[in-house]
């Protein structure tokens, strides 16, 4: 059974192992039966994706993931496909050994992989080398085989997880398979949706192997994928005061664009009023480009006070800088106690002067900013994005958006959501400024920080996908997202 990934609960590797054991102990489902079901599900996916394929290369490791591969190879052989079977090492015993024996009985002769071996011409490669248990970098013969598969050029179907990818964290510490499709089994593993993993998985299909839903009922998922959402229609008698007043604070000399993008995103996402506190030199440009923004010259904290008094929600950081001007405005804004979204230099200033937030707050760091906020380095953040996001939320008592491929949203109470949308074209200047304005607008419209962050991240990523679909990913700029954002917020479909 394939399940729409927007409805998926996400589990850790340890949780997946617990469910595996429970399937056997509580539901009388032997491991070998699950192995055969996994192979059948994967083979059906292969035929659905590549219906013209007649020649397969199946690569098996020594564990149960390899057992799935042996079973798939036997199924393909029975269907009349030409199958080449390569193994890193023959499994000694257990279910995988039994699967290998069944494969031999079907008429296939496994070939031991050796360095320098040439691979046959095939239409599809099946990766059944390593499953969810692998956390280290591939080395030696395994690494060489993965590199040979990459050089081959045929599309790869990965069973459960692409070999070399950490299914728990999304880290890819060394050579790893780049799959065109991944079929994962029983439950979705959280690491497949964030960090470096999405570049290796292709689309991820889940098959629950026809196990009863009761199997998962006693085990709460570790995280959840975001679902498509917008806001309901407004009341017919609504007025601008009902929808909040966002004050965007930032725009040091030379960075007017950052604060304009933030303010305009807040407007497009429904804030009733949007003011901008910025350097006086930027007013003419802002007024000419977007007169709906109420731009104010703020050269010091005395001029910021009246604006803070009128605002309901703050967006602090885009183009703020870390000099005396930016620091003074940052400190005054945070001390106001107003609900806020903090980004960019607002986060860098927070790393220098940490505080726990008592007002509703959303922090939106990229991995570099997250590393500074945690006092570590980027490699540590990316090695376990789930742990980093939760640590930030607990340390600062704020909802945290850890940006990047598969952005994470973490709450201080441990809740965590993963964004399944977005594309590489969004790795361009101004996207973060835009997201700050989006989330601030949703906060201003009375969403909680958790709700505003989840909805805002999803809208931002989906808008990026719609904009990329029109003209491609390369050359995508932040302002291309503004109209798609408005459409999505009002309930237009993503496709």
Write up this protein:
This protein is an alpha/beta fold and 495 residues long. It folds into 2 domains: 5-222, Rossmann fold; 240-489, UDP-N-acetylmuramoyl-L-alanine:D-glutamate ligase. The protein contains 18 helices and 19 strands. It has helices spanning 13-25, 31-49, 64-78, 94-105, 140-152, 198-201, 214-217, 256-268, 283-289, 301-310, 324-335, 345-352, 367-374, 378-383, 385-396, 431-444, 449-471, 482-489, and strands spanning 9-11, 55-60, 82-87, 111-112, 124-128, 156-159, 181-185, 188-189, 204-207, 223-225, 245-249, 273-278, 294-297, 313-316, 340-342, 361-363, 399-402, 408-410, 416-418. The chain has a 12-stranded mixed β-sheet, with helices on both faces. The chain has a 7-stranded parallel β-sheet with strand order 4-3-2-5-6-7-9, with helices on one face. Helix 10 (301-310) packs parallel to helix 11. It is elongated and about 85 Å long. The protein starts with 8 loop residues before the first strand and ends in a 6-residue tail after the last helix.
How are the strands of the biggest sheet laid out side by side? 8-1-10-19-18-17-16-15-14-11-12-13
Number of helices: 18
* Low-pLDDT stretches: 1-6
Number of strands: 19
Class from secondary-structure proportions: alpha/beta
| Rg, alpha carbons | 26 Å
Q: Determine the N-to-C terminus distance.
A: 23 Å
If you consult CATH, what is the topology of the largest domain? UDP-N-acetylmuramoyl-L-alanine:D-glutamate ligase
Number of domains: 2
CATH architectural type of the largest domain:
3-Layer(aba) Sandwich
Domain YjeF N-terminal: 16-217
Organism: Aerosticca soli
Protein name: Bifunctional NAD(P)H-hydrate repair enzyme
Family: Belongs to the NnrE/AIBP family. Belongs to the NnrD/CARKD family.
């Amino acid at each position: 059974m394939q399940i729409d990934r927007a409805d998926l609960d996400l589990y850790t590797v340890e949780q997946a192992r617990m469910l595996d054991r429970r399937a056997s102990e509580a539901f009388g489902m032997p491991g070998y039966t699950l192995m055969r079901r996994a192979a059948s599900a994967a083979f059906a996916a292969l035929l659905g994706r590549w219906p013209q394929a007649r020649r397969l290369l199946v690569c098996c490791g020594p564990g149960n993931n390899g057992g799935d591969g042996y079973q798939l190879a036997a199924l393909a052989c029975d269907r009349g496909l030409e199958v080449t079977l390569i193994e890193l090492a023959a499994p000694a015993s257990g279910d995988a050994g039994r699967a290998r024996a069944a494969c031999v009985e079907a008429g296939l002769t496994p070939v031991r992989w050796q360095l320098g071996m040439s691979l046959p011409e095939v239409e599809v490669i099946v990766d059944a080398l390593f499953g969810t248990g692998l956390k280290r970098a591939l080395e030696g013969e395994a690494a060489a085989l993965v590199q040979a598969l990459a050089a081959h050029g045929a599309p790869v179907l990965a069973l459960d997880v692409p070999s070399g990818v950490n299914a728990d964290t999304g880290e890819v510490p060394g050579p790893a398979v780049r799959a065109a499709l991944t079929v994962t089994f029983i439950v979705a593993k959280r690491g497949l949706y964030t960090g470096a993993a999405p570049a290796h998985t292709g689309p991820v299909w889940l098959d629950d192997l026809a196990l009863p839903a009761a199997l998962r009922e006693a085990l709460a998922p570790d995280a959840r994928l975001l679902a498509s959402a917008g806001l309901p229609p407004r009341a017919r008698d609504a007025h601008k005061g009902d929808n909040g007043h966002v004050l965007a604070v930032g725009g040091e000399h030379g960075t007017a664009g950052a604060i304009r993008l933030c303010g305009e995103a807040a407007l497009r996402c429904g804030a009733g009023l949007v003011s901008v506190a910025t350097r006086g030199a930027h007013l003419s440009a802002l007024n000419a480009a977007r007169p709906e923004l109420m731009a104010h010259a703020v050269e010091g904290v005395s001029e910021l006070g009246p604006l803070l008094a009128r605002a309901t929600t703050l967006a602090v950081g885009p183009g703020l800088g870390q000099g005396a001007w930016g620091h003074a405005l940052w400190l005054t804004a945070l001390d106001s106690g107003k609900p806020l979204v903090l980004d960019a230099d607002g986060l860098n200033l927070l790393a220098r002067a940490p505080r726990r937030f008592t007002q509703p707050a959303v922090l939106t760091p990229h991995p570099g900013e997250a590393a500074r906020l945690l006092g570590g380095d980027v490699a540590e953040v990316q090695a376990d994005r789930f742990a980093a996001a939760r640590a930030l939320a607990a340390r600062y008592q704020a909802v945290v958006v850890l940006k990047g491929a598969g952005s994470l949203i973490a709450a201080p109470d441990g809740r965590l959501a993963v964004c399944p949308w977005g594309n590489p074209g969004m790795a361009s200047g101004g996207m973060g400024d835009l997201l700050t304005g989006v989330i601030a607008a949703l906060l201003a419209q009375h969403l909680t920080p958790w709700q505003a962050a989840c909805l805002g991240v999803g809208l931002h990523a989906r808008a990026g996908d719609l904009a990329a679909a029109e003209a491609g990913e390369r050359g995508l700029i932040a302002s291309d997202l503004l109209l798609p954002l408005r459409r999505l917020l009002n309930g237009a479909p993503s496709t």
